[in-house]
Amino acid sequence: MSEPLRAHISMVNSQASGVPPAPRSCAGCGGKIADRFLLFSMERYWHTRCLKCSCCQAQLGDIGTTCYSKGGMILCRSDYIRLFGHSGACSACGQSIPANEMVMRAQGNVYHLKCFSCATCRNRLMPGDRFHYINGTIFCEHDRPGAALLNSHLPPLQSNSVLTDQKVC
C-alpha cells in the first residue's frame, strides 16, 4: 500500500550564485529548466507551471509550501483531505486507503466501501441506500436508534442517501 508523502515545496532562484546553472530536467514534463525560478519538491526539480495538483490542476508553488503524493498523484492539501480524509485512513477501521480505491464519505469522514456499514446489523450500505449519521456512527434506515418510537410524521434525524464516489478527482 502506498503511504502518503507530505513534501515541502521550495522556490529556487537558479541565477542566485551568478554562475550559470547546470541544466536541470523537470520532473513533470521532462524538459530542460531554463527559467530563472524553479521549484524543488520530493527530491526533484520542477518548472513552476509543472508542479500542479492532479485533481484541481492548481499550481502548487502558488498556493502553498506543501504538497502530498500518494498513489502516483500529486495533490494540494484540500484535494488530499477530500480524497483521503485528514489522516489518509478509513474512519472505521483506521487502515490506509489506497489511492485507486473507491471510497464512501459521510460528514467529512472517508471509509473503505467494505467498512461503510450499519453499526447495528453490520450490513454494508450501497449506493442509493438511505442511512443516518448520528454522533459519528452510521445506521441503516431500519436500525436508526429510536426508529420504533418515532412515527412517520416526524422528520428523520440526519438522513442521507449513499452516493457513488469516484476513484479520483
What sequence of helices (H) and strands (E) makes up the elements?
EEEEEEHEEHEEEEE
Q: Please state roughly what percent of the residues sit in beta strands, choosing from under 5%, 5-15%, 15-25%, 25-35%, 35-45% or over 45%.
A: 25-35%
How much helicity do the residues have? under 10%
Q: What overall form do the CA principal axes indicate? A: rod-shaped
What is the distance, rounded to the nearest whole angstrom, between the alpha carbons of the first and last residues?
20 Å
Q: How many DSSP helices? A: 2
Counting helices, strands and paired strands, the structural category is: mainly beta
Largest sheet: 3 strands, antiparallel
| Mean pLDDT rating | 78
Could you give the order of strands across the largest sheet? Answer: 1-7-8
Number of strands: 13
- Uncertain segments are 149-169
Radius of gyration: 22 Å
Textual characterization of the structure:
This protein has 169 residues and is mainly beta. The protein contains 2 helices and 13 strands. The chain has helices spanning 60-63, 77-84, and strands at 5-8, 10-13, 24-25, 32-33, 37-41, 44-46, 66-70, 73-75, 103-106, 109-112, 130-134, 137-140, 159-161. A hairpin with a 2-residue loop joins β11 and β12 (137-140). The longest helix is centred in the middle third of the chain and has 8 residues, at 77-84. The chain is rod-shaped. Residues 149-169 have low confidence and may be disordered.
